[in-house]
Amino acid sequence: MALTHTILVVGGAGYIGSHMVKALLGEGYHVVTLDNLSTGYRDAVVGGEFIEADLADRGQLERLFSGQSIDAVMHFASFIQVVESVREPAKYYANNVTNTLNLLDTMRIHGVNKFIFSSSAAVYGEPIRVPIDEDHPKLPLNPYGRTKWMVEQILADYDLAYGLRSVSLRYFNAAGADPEGRLGERHEPETHLIPLVLQAASGRRENVQVFGRDYDTPDGTCIRDYVHVADLCEAHRLALERLLNGAGSAAYNLGNGNGFSVQEVIDMAARITGKPIPVKDSLRRAGDPARLVADAQTAKQELGWVPHYPELETIILHAWQWEQRQRRTNLNTKL
Question: Is pLDDT at 2 greater than 60 in this prediction?
């Protein structure tokens, strides 16, 4: 079946997108990657067709869709830094909302009506209950979260008006790296906890900051739900198959349903790496909830999604394999 379907992966040179491209190729899909390489890496795209283009350029999109018979689109090309979104909201609304509209309208013109959207738990804002299910109120706290929720609402309107069916996948904390070691996180700047901790362990970073130790949690540090990037990709594949088989639009949380504290992540990383991890204690950050944990039962029930790597140990181990590779690459570059 898969050989007959062409999937456009937008943002496929980034962290999650590159893992998705690899997973789709492994399932036999024909994959076309579109990325402007503003934050992605060309060498992260391990196969299929690659097109360097920008969603802001409607002409480029028109040429792409005119030249390809595309069956479905996966969209990973959002800006993701919460703090930056507060400082530069125009950048986030332009890329995350306006450019997504460019993509959706080009799809509509060319009769492509299946869309997988990389959304975020940031749509929920400050949790009023934990674990968080899909019916939790949507009260995003920052421009990043608002852009994700805006696109989800646009998708609902486009489904009603134009029959464009979509699945929005609300990630909690994407983490880990390709189990085979070919791909991993390369954000610049890096803002995610696990790679920051591992960079401190490998000596590429002086320390890791802990923002607050006075939360209402067992050890006083924030608790988050980490989900392995390979498991995220599996959920995307299942959502894609759901749309290809004629199902309607939906939205799902993606998380393990287990929370780990910042200190637990640091302790596990120290055990796995055998390295000391210098820590710098800092004040709380505004808007950081004590706990963010997913209720992902709907994805498990409706998609048949079963995370293969739910253990924190495995997530950090795969990320450490990637970090060691990055450190070797950096050392060789300096020689």
Answer: no
User: 171 pairs with which residues across the strands?
Assistant: 120, 254
How far is CA 325 from each of CA 22, 45, 172, 191, rounded to the nearest angstrom? 19, 17, 26, 19
In 3-state terms the chain splits into helix, strand, coil percentages (rounded to 5) of 45, 20, 40
For domain 2-175+227-254, the CATH superfamily is: NAD(P)-binding Rossmann-like Domain (3.40.50.720)
Q: In whole angstroms, how large is the CA radius of gyration of the chain? A: 19
What b/e string do you get for 75-93 counting C-beta neighbours within 10 Å, with b at 16 or more?
A: bbbbbbbbebbeeeeeebb
Distance CA 292, CA 311 (A): 17
pLDDT for residue 335 is more than 50: no
Q: Of 290, 286, 223, 293, whose CA–CA distance to 257 is shortest?
A: 293
* Cis geometry, peptide bond prior to residue 137 (ω within 30 degrees of 0): no
CB 19 within 8 A of CB 230: yes
> pLDDT digits over 122-161, tens only?
999 999 999 999 999 999 999 999 999 999 999 999 999 9
Rounded Cα–Cα distance for residues 254 and 234 (Å): 11
The partner residues of 32 in beta bridges, in order of sequence, read: 8, 49
Query: Residue range 91-109: average pLDDT?
Result: 98
Q: Crossing angle, helix 58-67 and helix 99-109, to 10 degrees?
A: 30
Mind telling me the catalytic residues?
144
Percent of the chain scored above 70 by pLDDT?
Answer: 97
Neighbours of 118 (CB within 10 A): 26
Could you state, in order of their start, the residue ranges of all structural domains in the chain? Answer: 2-175+227-254, 193-224+257-334
Q: Is 41 in a helix, a strand, or coil? A: coil
**Residues near 134 by beta carbon (within 8 Å), at least 6 away in sequence:** 170, 251, 252, 253, 295, 298
Domain 193-224+257-334, CATH: 3.90.25.10
Q: What is the pTM of this model?
A: 0.95
